Amino acid sequence: MPRAAGRREHSFRHGAVAGTSGPRSGFPARGRGSGRSVVSRLLITAARDEIMNISKFAIPEVIFGQGSIKALGQCALRLGARRVLIVSDPGLAQVGWVEKLFDLLEEAGLTWTYFDNVSSNPRDYQVHQGAERYIEDQADVIIALGGGSPMDTAKGIGIIAGNGGCISDYEGANRIMRPLPPMIFIPSTCGSGSDTTQYCIVTDIGRQVKMSIISRSLVPNVSIIDPSLLLTKSLELIIAAAIDALSHAIESYVSKLASPFTETLALQAIGIIMQNLKPAVESRSIQHLEQLAIASTAAGMSFSNAGLGVAHALAHSLGGIYDTLHGLVHPILLPAVMRFNLPACQEKMARIGKIVCGPRFSSGRELAHRCIDELASFFLQFGVPVRMREILPDTSKLESIARMACRDACALTNPRDASWEDLLGICQEAW
Q1: Each residue of 104-120: pLDDT tens digit?
Q2: Entry pTM
Q3: 61-228 domain in CATH 3.40.50.1970?
Q4: CATH code at 234-430
Q5: How far from 187 is each of 63, 244, 278, CA to CA, in Å?
Q6: Which of 54, 93, 288, 370 is buried most, with the most CB atoms less than 10 Å from its CB?
Q7: CB within 8 Å of 285: residues ≥ 6 apart
Q8: Nearest-CA neighbor of 316 among 184, 180, 209?
């Protein structure tokens, strides 16, 4: 079976550089005893600061624009494809997009096998079934068409096809040791960002946990982003996806691992969504939908490299227990999470506030607080749930949700450390 050109898994510890064992490595003591000159100490301090500021930025090849889906055949051939596995869902088959893929692959002289057993929150057993299909049908490239669910399923299939075992073996960060098959992703929504990211979210049915799997290997080779696909999506899915992208942008902007690269993309995404979501819903014009696709891509690139926060940790926990639609959890959680994080990132919240509210307030503190209130009002315009009691039957599971979220990988990069009691408090505020 042809293999992917070697995409290697790199372990990266923020603040560490290959070949160093600590902040003093490479800087031998000079002079008598352990004393150093003032200049020497300043140089060492500067070098340490430089090491701490090192960041990485991983993205796929991106092909963007109306009609860009037509590039699929050539992209697959360039990756060495002969027989591809297409992962999608019945909804996209019904509106004709899956058949469009079949036609494009046939024009390129390629054969395919098709897997569509994908739930809105992909299950572990579905990933294993897809991996069996990939291996049994001797596929050599994976193509995913859809929102986050088909794309995360495709990533899980790639993990098992390239590494074996069970998908739960790879929960957490940097546990994938072997290359995955080449992957081409075609997003049909404007929110999940899975087509550009190092994340894969799969539900462990036995534990009722949405597992976060994070690895450089999960960034697809190619992302083909054709805004025309958004024309066939329901308004509910457009709203849910765009709000998910907005949450990606806000959480990655204030993340502990944010960098100048991710911050720029995150702020751009916030501005585009705030300006274009309402007119996109009202008119469904391709121009506004295209802007939402741009924002989703920018937010995905940002959070893939900076991480997320406790809003997503709680959303994953909710999805694992109650199978909630991921995008519609964020209007409920995000304001309460932002209030919790405010003491740790007031200046950044104020910058978000300038985009959300405009330059109407001179005080950074006032702007940061007003930003949260404005976002809550923004969500109300779309008729989505804004209180947790609207989607859950009772409060009996809140402690379990909080405890589970505290162990989620997304909580690690939240700007303010949070205990499970803190997360329970957020849930109670959002109730």
Answers
A1: 999 999 999 999 999 98
A2: 0.85
A3: yes
A4: 1.20.1090.10
A5: 11, 14, 21
A6: 288
A7: 279
A8: 209
